[in-house]
Amino acid sequence: MPADALSRVFSALADPTRRDMVTRLAVADATVNELAEPYDVSLQAVSKHLKVLQDAGLVSRSREAQRRPVHLEAEVFDLMTKWIERYRRQAEERYGRLDDLLRTMPDDVEPTPPPATGAAR
Amino acid sequence: MPADALSRVFSALADPTRRDMVTRLAVADATVNELAEPYDVSLQAVSKHLKVLQDAGLVSRSREAQRRPVHLEAEVFDLMTKWIERYRRQAEERYGRLDDLLRTMPDDVEPTPPPATGAAR
DNA sequence: TTGTTGTTCAACCCGATGGTTGAACACCTT
DNA sequence: AAGGTGTTCAACCATCGGGTTGAACAACAA
User: Which residue of A84, A92, A101 is the best one to mutate when testing the B interface, meaning the one whose CB has the most B CBs within 10 A?
Assistant: First the structure.
């Protein structure tokens, strides 16, 4: 599992079952058995999903007699949010710059559709 | 590829190379050849990565002579951000509620750590 | 027409992933 | 000590994902 942290988080959330687990864990902690109940898969499969979420840092586990309750770790979400917001902002700024460019565009552009795609390079 | 939209987006961004492409596309549109340049993989591999990003709705492609410039579609990021924020907020509210619970807690609780885990179910 | 450039398609390899079942471990109850 | 409950480990199987190479397609340039 040499993948970087961000990859592990994205990868963990790429599975609908795991996202559903996260959804339910946002409401309340739960045990493996409780989590497994709605899904039509083995307990072992659910346990594996939890391992993925845990390796991604999205959940933590404690011990409580035989049970091992699962707890959502909300902080990791910030990692993703930051990454996403950064590039969404960049892309938006870029549109801003493109607007400026178009606004100050001289008239000597050829009639063929200007390569709006090749703003750089 | 019957996976739902959100799964496709998360899955697409789970790969570091593809995230790097997105990073660079946030700065400017680029062709396959331009995108491939920094990576030590074949052009075909890069083309495949782009297909994944496109299927996830993260990029679009146009035609410009032989070239097929790649363009970042920033809107899809909102889908993820919304999903993430929703559960992050829920989890935080939950802590709030737990704080309330602890604040208004009566004295007749047993000395053993109260099962804060079993709030639901 | 022939060639050159940019890109994708097709077939294949290999390691990772999601699922299974059966056995084992951990902890409580009796 | 023996049994029950909750969870994980181990081995296995099928599919998927990222990589490769070789051939093909698309559009321009001679």
Answer: A84
Nearest to B34 among A87, A91, A121 (CB): A121
Domain ranges of chain B: 5-74
Q: Are A75 and A35 in contact (CB under 8 A)?
A: no
B17-44: pLDDT as tens digits: 999 999 999 999 999 999 999 999 999 9
The string of pLDDT tens digits covering residues B40-90 is 999 999 999 999 999 999 999 999 998 999 999 988 888 899 999 888 888
Look at residues A77, A102, A97 and name the one whose alpha carbon lies nearest to residue B26: A97
* CATH T-level topology, domain B5-74: Arc Repressor Mutant, subunit A (1.10.10)
Q: For the structural domain made of A5-73, what CATH number should be given?
A: 1.10.10.10
